[in-house]
Design a protein that fits this description.
CATH topology of the largest domain: Tetracycline Repressor, domain 2
CATH architecture of the largest domain: Orthogonal Bundle
CATH class of the largest domain: Mainly Alpha
Shape: elongated
Number of domains: 2
Order of helices and strands: HHHHHHHHH
Number of helices: 9
Distance between the termini: 52 Å
Strand content: under 5%
Length: 201
């Protein structure tokens, strides 16, 4: 059974795009959706075309082959949460780390990353595109929020922000992989626990 997480009626990955938002957009959605659902083997040009509601020629007019199509789809859909500067460290971190519930975009990104990791040996360029477009920028933004907190005197100036980022990002990954639920307030509680250990006393 196909699971719809968010956004448009026909897409796991949509952020509310209208269903008639264009053939290229539908191809991108279909490409990443099928990678998540069926892996590389199931994300064929024919399957993507069928899911996108277009002909295969529409795809070949835009992309040389399947790999170029999928790489473009990954790059187009690796959108990171916004970097905020509200002056409240906890709130700025939660914007990036909250999963958005069981149907949220962050959970979807975890599913996509998992699918790409399984294909890494044969298609390392897909996983690299995911890292460049989502993992590394997200980590950089988390570290930026932490550095701002250090400069404001909220966190100790001897803290290793890279290690703290590992703890913050690792919580969601551990919870996801263990099959645990992201109950109301759980991410907030986890972030508060981590920050409590590095606050200026």
């Amino acid at each position: 059974m196909r699971v719809v997480y968010s956004g448009s009626k026909n897409s796991l990955s949509g952020y509310g795009r209208p269903r008639d938002s264009g053939v290229t957009e539908r191809i991108y959605d279909a490409g990443v959706d099928l990678l998540v659902e069926r892996g590389y083997a199931g994300a064929t040009v024919a399957a993507v075309a069928a899911r996108a509601g277009c002909g295969t020629q529409s795809i070949y007019r835009r992309f040389v082959n399947r790999d170029e199509m999928l790489l473009a789809a990954i790059e187009a859909r690796c959108v990171i949460p916004p970097l905020r500067n509200s002056g409240r460290t906890l709130d700025d971190l939660l914007v990036m780390l909250e999963p958005g519930g069981r149907r949220g975009a962050q959970r979807y990104r975890s599913l996509l990353g998992s699918a790409l990791a399984l294909e890494a040996e044969r298609h390392p360029e897909f996983l690299m595109a995911f890292r460049r477009g989502f993992v590394w920028p997200l980590r950089k933004n988390v570290e930026s929020v932490l550095m701002r907190a250090v400069r404001r005197g909220e966190l100790r100036d001897d803290v290793d922000v890279s290690l703290v980022a590992d703890l913050l990002l690792g919580f969601s990954s551990s919870r996801f992989w263990s099959g645990g639920d992201f109950g109301d307030g759980l991410v907030r509680e986890a972030v508060e626990v981590v920050l409590a250990g590095v606050r200026v006393r």
